[in-house]
Amino acid sequence: MRLLGNLLWCILGGLLSALSWAAAGLLWCITIVGIPIGLQCFKFASLSLFPFGKEVVYGGGAPSLLLNILWLIFSGLPLAIGHAAWGCLLCITIVGIPFGLQFFKLARLALTPFGSRIVPAL
After folding, report:
1. What is the number of H-type helices and E-type strands within the chain?
2. What distance in Å separates the CA atoms of residue 90 and residue 101, rounded to the nearest whole number?
């Protein structure tokens, strides 16, 4: 079931979502200071390609908070708004609700990506 969900996900906007995370990662990697932030973006681009069967665990301390504030100012807000808009659009139909929920998961992740980990779902 996860395989089918991930395949449909790529068709219904997952590929576009992964490309947006990768574009943000490339922009951050232009500067030497932004490379750690860009690498985090690439990690979440892979989650954005295949989100079914994976969960995000949030946590972190003061360094994560500082990076999340910096991220939110420069890149997080546009990504979060885009994911939330796709989620609302897909939740209009009953069939699209599982995909919309994945977009909402990615929208929350776009707001606070640092200090979070990707783990397999049980």
Report:
1. 6, 2
2. 9
CA distance 56 to 78: 20
User: 22 pLDDT exceeds 80?
Assistant: yes
Render pLDDT for 87-103 as a digit per residue (tens, 0 to 9): 999 899 898 898 889 88
Size of the chain, expressed as the number of residues it contains:
122
Distance of CA 117 to the CA centre of its chain: 12
pLDDT at residue 46 in the model = 86
Mean pLDDT computed over 17-32: 88
Distance CA(52)–CA(99), nearest Å, equals: 9
DSSP E strand stretches across the chain: 54-57, 117-120
Q: What is the pLDDT of residues 57-98, one digit of tens each?
A: 888 777 788 888 888 888 889 889 988 998 999 899 898 898
In degrees, to the nearest 5, what angle opens at C-alpha 115 toward C-alphas 27 and 13? 55
- Alpha helices by DSSP H, listed for 50-96, are 62-71, 77-90
pTM: 0.82
What's the rounded Cα separation, in Å, for the pair 84 and 90? 10
